[in-house]
Amino acid sequence: MNYRHAFHAGNHADVLKHLLLCRLFALLARKEAPYAYLDSHAGVGLYDLTGDQASRTGEWREGIGRLWQEQHVPAALDSYLEVIRAMNPDGVLRHYPGSPELARLQSREQDRLQLNEKHPEDGRLLKENMDADPRVAVHLGEGWHVPRALLPTREKRAVLLIDPPFEKADELERCVTALNEAIGRMRQTIVVVWYPIKDERQLRRFYRDMEKSAAPKLLRAELFVHPADDAQRLNGSGLLISNPPWGLEEELRELLPWLAERLAQSKGSWRLDWLIAE
Ligand SMILES: C[S@@+](CC[C@H](N)C(=O)[O-])C[C@H]1O[C@@H](n2cnc3c(N)ncnc32)[C@H](O)[C@@H]1O
């Protein structure tokens, strides 16, 4: 396990994923009923963008760094940016939330968080960072076991983020299995699968397998900062979302073109479509 998310925190892919999570939490809050948030590959939860690891790549400068300087942003970005503003009250961008901290800050008293991180050191930091909140449970187990271990939840609504490091060749396949297991155990689960886009050809089989998955509905949202033709580079990233709440597709249709323009490095673009339509 060599991957350390601190090198990549706040980059364009984190922006897409974290913004999507914030929109999900906002849309779920339209109803009082509680939800459970499950994070199979949670990371440490909090990042210092001036720290050694984030500084070495500087990836965040082309991600959250760009949005931070924007004067006018679409309203759907507000809740995401408000969290980051609150973490950086002096107006200088330094602290950045991971998915666990975003979920913690955007969820309500009645909601519950189950976070999992396998790396021992990162797991310890995650525990430390989440310690004060009684709604949060941190597990240090195998991320791929999360659907089987934690679903169905006692809450009738659940969001599961599957965000592995993609260090190993079989991780796309494992995402398909994890999504199928989650839907098999709790059909209405909102599963969010994040994946990197280098050369698009590498994803054909993944898309085909996902089209045949058990998800009742599956939305695909992708954001490119370069054309997807160089396998050595992170050209963009994608999210597959099962059972997206009503209103999410429309919001993404407004947000993605805006993000593609603001976050483009050589050429920005986006895609939003259904891999499984109802
Ligand atoms: C992309 S990062 C997660 C980022 C986090 N979800 C966020 O958005 O802030 C992937 C994490 O998975 C952890 N990891 C790697 N292999 C794992 C496994 N088999 N089970 C659980 N966690 C694992 C890594 O240590 C790393 O912290």
Automatic annotation (TrEMBL):
The record marks 3 as: Interaction with substrate rRNA. The active site is at 163 (proton acceptor). S-adenosyl-L-methionine binds at residues 18, 41, 99, 117, 142-143, 163. It comes from the Bacteria. Keywords: Methyltransferase, RNA-binding, rRNA processing, S-adenosyl-L-methionine, Transferase. It catalyses: adenosine(2030) in 23S rRNA + S-adenosyl-L-methionine = N(6)-methyladenosine(2030) in 23S rRNA + S-adenosyl-L-homocysteine + H(+). Pfam families: RsmJ (PF04378). Its EC number is 2.1.1.266. PANTHER family: RIBOSOMAL RNA LARGE SUBUNIT METHYLTRANSFERASE J (PTHR37426). Specifically methylates the adenine in position 2030 of 23S rRNA. HAMAP family: 23SrRNA_methyltr_J (MF_00934). Belongs to the RlmJ family. Monomer. This is Ribosomal RNA large subunit methyltransferase J. The lineage of its organism: Bacteria, Pseudomonadati, Pseudomonadota, Gammaproteobacteria, Pseudomonadales.
